[in-house]
Amino acid sequence: MLLRRKNNLLFLLFFLTFSAEASSFPVVRFLNRTQLIAEISDDKGVDEKAMVVITKEDHEVIAIGRIQDVERSTFPMTIKVTILEIIENNLILVGDKVSVINKEFLEDNKVPGFNSLTLGGGNKVSAQYKELAYFGVFTADGHTLDEKEFLVSPFQFQYGVTDDFGFKVVNALWFDGYVNAGFKYRALHNKHAKITVGGLGAYKVQRQDWIAQSSGVITLPSNSKFQNHFMVNFIFDPQSAESRATENLKLFRTSDIRSVTEYITDSWNRVLYGPVYNVELQTFGGT
């Protein structure tokens, strides 16, 4: 009976160890300074363009990359990984582990590589780990959503038609009789900068009252913890003195220019702070 229990325990330990390592692949060689080759035993869930993390034996995350190619015709099968970000100047060595990033991995491990996680192709990554799609609650817009991703709030609805283009509507305007629609377009998105521009138009037939808004945001990543955002928000309201949206609904009242620094905690909560300049009043405030 004791021997049987011991054998069962050894089998359980072996099974747990194998299961933990099944999704991690060892680095076997380097092609150049930014590309490496890892061996895989099973290509299930290993797709080209998938995001990966590179870890040490103690599971410390040292780098983030993206799979560029999966070679299934060889034995053992291999993947080619392009390194996107080195965490805190760590050194990658042969034998380090490559793991595909998914929701479960992110929940179980504190992955600090914010810059690379927010590059394109992160559709399988939970929204908790992505860049903010909007700032504030009202009209200050951020970057685009991913394709087929949507954002719903009491104030607005946004939908990503593609990774680069999406549309939005402001619910409060619709409820007050303003037909409105807007868009956001990602003009640039790489590891150096992200630029998104947008616009929105609203018109109320009964009052012949129209409002237009144009906006833009430039994001400059600093490291895995900080990003700097520069935002502009311009309002065009030729009937502002009699506009119900401007006066009664208190929407689209002022144009502003703001600089926002975003700090990402280990639990992926965000802290935002920075100055705001009100164009109409020519005064400074803060976030």
What is the gist of this entry?
The chain is mainly β. 14% of the residues lie in helices and 43% in strands.
Would you tell me the overall average pLDDT?
76
Shape: elongated
Name the poorly predicted regions. 1-22
Q: Tell me about the biggest sheet?
A: 11 strands, antiparallel
First CA to last CA: what distance? 67 Å
Question: Which assembly state applies to the chains in this document?
Answer: single chain
H/E element sequence? HEEEEEEHHEEEHEEEEHEEEE
Q: Radius of gyration, rounded?
A: 24 Å
> What is the total tally of β strands?
17
Number of helices: 5
Helicity level? 10-25%
Summarize the helices and strands and which ones pair or pack:
Layout: H1 2-21, E1 24-30, E2 35-40, E3 51-55, E4 61-71, E5 77-86, E6 97-100, H2 103-108, H3 114-117, E7 150-152, E8 156-160, E9 165-170, H4 171-175, E10 179-189, E11 194-204, E12 209-221, E13 226-236, H5 244-247, E14 256-264, E15 270-273, E16 275-278, E17 283-286
